[in-house]
Design a protein that fits this description.
Order of helices and strands: EHEHHEHEHEEEHEHEHEHEEHHEEH
Number of helices: 12
CATH superfamily of the largest domain: Isopropylmalate Dehydrogenase
Radius of gyration: 20 Å
Number of domains: 2
Distance between the termini: 21 Å
Largest sheet: 10 strands, mixed
Helix content: 40-55%
CATH architecture of the largest domain: 3-Layer(aba) Sandwich
Number of strands: 14
CATH class of the largest domain: Alpha Beta
CATH topology of the largest domain: Isopropylmalate Dehydrogenase
Length: 356
């Protein structure tokens, strides 16, 4: 069978890391008898430069007609001063998620024994960290009404957080099902002591909980959750939360894995899944072969598992990365004394050697 992949390198280091993930997919295909077709599209700042739009209609149609999407990164200082609706983050990612019905962002976060000393946290605090953060992706502040007005010469701005019961139910059910296949613990993060939307969120979680009697459910305010991620990350199994809280907490959790360059993600909900590293476009190192390709390679592994049900192939990629790290190879973001510094392509070469 041939899988059709929409390839969206985007901006900055996206053009360097995405080809590395494609190399790994091709190697997996050759080893396990899979076939892929890769079709590239424009998105983000580069799309603005070439077409005037951050998400060209041609790219949207390519995504709709593919079996999965691999995205690099978008944005950069060059486009920061554009009107909000044209900025890559707002004008490309948000409408793409909405158009494809990608309401759930899944970010696994685990610690690697080989990187125990690479984190800024003590290794005994990190020990046993293995969690999945599930973030609602198409509701809340990012999609609510927003605007500005002038009142007697004073600028006022507003953003509206709106959630409906069906929106909450579908993401919470996904979280329950995910927990069922892991350690059967679900922590729902909200701010129910202040926000009405969070009170509806918590009520919905509690109403659904009896349908999943095998899952231990807890609730945590988002400020406490941020603290607990640093104090005792090993307590978490599956975390579910709304859009803004999830955006912040998942980036915070990335540091438990030593670097954003280690954190993959999947955006699911519609027929076509979107897979991307959690980091940004890193324009400061773009074109220098310094970028860590592991997050993008792990995103490709998630694609194999979640979109194509190729679990063994996904695990093979994960094992190859673990072996490379155990042998001491490091890109700059996870470099430690006594380890061997490699560039973007060289790190991928090492992963390919382990897959051979």
């Amino acid at each position: 069978m041939t899988y059709r992949i929409a390839v969206l390198p985007g901006d900055g280091i996206g053009a360097e890391i995405v080809p590395q993930a494609l190399r790994v997919l091709e190697a997996v295909g050759a080893k396990y008898g899979l076939s892929f077709t890769f079709t590239e599209g424009l998105i983000g700042g580069i799309a603005i430069d070439e077409t005037g739009q951050p998400l060209p209609q041609e790219t949207l149609e390519l995504c709709r007609n593919s079996d999965a999407i691999l995205l690099g990164a978008i944005g950069g200082p060059k486009w920061d001063n554009l009107p909000t609706h044209l900025r890559p983050e707002v004008g490309a990612l948000l409408p793409l998620r909405k158009a494809l019905g990608l309401y759930a962002n899944i970010r696994p976060c685990r610690t690697y024994d080989a990187l125990a000393d690479a984190s800024t946290l003590k290794k005994e605090v990190l020990a046993g960290t293995d969690m999945v953060i599930i973030r609602e992706l198409t509701g809340g502040l990012y999609f609510g009404s927003k605007g500005r007005t002038d009142v007697d010469g004073v600028q006022q701005a507003w953003d509206t957080m709106i959630y409906s019961t069906p929106e909450i139910e579908r993401i919470v059910r996904l979280a329950f099902e995910t927990a069922r296949h892991r350690r059967k613990k679900l922590c729902s993060v909200d701010k129910a002591n202040v926000l009405e939307s969070s009170r509806l969120w918590r009520e919905t979680v509690n109403r659904l909980a009896p349908e999943y009697p095998d899952i231990a459910v807890t609730h945590m305010y988002v400020d406490n959750a941020a603290m607990q991620l640093i104090r005792n990350p090993g307590q978490f199994d599956v975390v579910v939360t709304e859009n803004t809280f999830g955006d912040i907490l998942s980036d915070q959790a990335s540091m438990l894995s030593a670097s954003l360059g280690m954190l993959a993600s999947a955006s699911l909900g519609g027929r076509v899944g979107l897979y991307e590293p959690a980091h940004g476009s890193a324009p400061d190192i773009a074109g220098q072969k310094k970028a860590n390709p592991i997050a993008t390679i792990l995103s490709a592994a998630m694609m194999l598992e979640y979109s194509f049900n190729r679990v063994a192939e996904a695990r093979a990629i994960e094992a190859a990365i673990e072996a490379v790290l155990a042998k001491g190879f490091r890109t700059g973001d996870i470099m430690e004394a006594g380890k061997r510094l490699v560039n973007t392509e060289e790190m991928t070469d090492r992963v390919l050697e382990e897959l051979a």
